What does this fold into?
Amino acid sequence: MTRKNILLVAGKKSHGPEGNGIHDYPAFVKTIKVLLDQSNNLKDINVQTVFDDWPEEPSIFDSADTIVFISDGKDSDVCGEPVPFTTTPERFNCIEKQLERGCGFVTFHFSTFFNNQEGEKIQNWNGGYFKWQNEKKEREWYSNITRKNEFIDLPTPSHELSHGLIPFMLQEEYYYNIKFHQDQKGLIPIWNIPTLPDLKDQTGGYVSWGFERKDGGRGFATTCGHDIGKFAIDQFRKMILNGIIWSANIPVPTEGVQSTMISTNLLQPEVIA
It folds into this structure.
């Protein structure tokens, strides 16, 4: 098997002080790298990391089999910072060029936020995005956020993205009613919560999904992952790691990607009211 390159890009931490574990993108990226590197049922992968939004040498993207953005997104001028590749046309074109050659593309929690113009591209890259903007380009959410303890269902249990996954309860900050691509042939729901309030349609409860692009490339996204404590949960780790390697066209092991949580002082899951 040809060695695969996974590139993890971390934005700057937001949402409070260092050490609170919330939206701590550098910590998330460091954790995911260790989990992938130390997995006992993965081989022939090379995991690289970028911090502070963007690499000094963008040529690092050229060898990536998938690019994972773990960062803020921008919710109008109310909160957040733009996903790093959207800040200049040059950056956006750089990532688009990688996807045109078949590179995978991953967004995670807040990095699912995009404006309408960006979102139309994202729908083609990994299936869907958090839509916060109306047709007049004003802040008016189509998508929603809730903080709840919910039962997670598996809509596609036989798909390799679901290998090793089981239904379970999870306390989380969920983003939902995602704006998915109109043509949903390539959409693969992984986690679904049909009990979330005010669902717009049958896809409204999808909070993690894969996407097979028409060009053969793959995308993956999850709206979950509010705090570092989620990585203490085996099912959360497995869903994330399965999705990342799948987006790089790596076969997902039958039991899912195996991992053991690393020791960290940020492992107390946030208690969400």
Observations:
- Residues 25-38 form the longest helix (14 residues).
- The domain at 4-247 is CATH 3.40.50.880 (Rossmann fold).
- The radius of gyration is 17 Å.
